[in-house]
């Protein structure tokens, strides 16, 4: 993985040039040539990703490389050089949620009630 990256804020400047704004335009540009895309990919394969997401992803990679895990409480803190990073908080909205359970007829049960036709406690037969 290259050490350089293009996850730069839109307000970043380099030698009075608005390189952050230029990078934002490249992310949105539909007319880049294959050669231009290849050059940007050569610097950073994640260059098209939104900057905040890109930086958090890189923080997560560093956290995992330092011995962190993808499981655990959402409020756990980062390790090593980035103790303020909260990987669980960042990962939580990215995790897929299980589909809602529904009854065999496709209806969703109301909270606190069993789904129609679902197995569960019922009247005892005598």
Summarize the structure in words:
- The chain has 126 residues and is an all-alpha fold.
- 32% of the residues lie in helices and 0% in strands.
- It is built from 4 helices and no strands.
- The mean pLDDT is 74.
Quick take:
The model has no long low-confidence stretch (mean pLDDT 74).
Which residue ranges are poorly predicted, with pLDDT under 50 across at least 5 consecutive positions? none
| Through-space gap between termini | 69 Å
CA radius of gyration is: 24 Å
User: What is the number of helices?
Assistant: 4
The major beta sheet can be summarized as: none
Number of domain units = 2
The arrangement of helices and strands along the chain is HHHH
Q: What is the molecular shape?
A: extended
Kindly state the percentage of residues in helix.
25-40%
Quickly give the structural class: mainly alpha
Average pLDDT confidence is 74
DSSP, total strands: 0
What portion of residues belong to β-strands? under 5%
Present the secondary structure layout.
Elements: H1 19-28, H2 34-43, H3 51-65, H4 87-91
Index terms:
32% helix, 2 domains, mainly alpha, extended, 126 residues
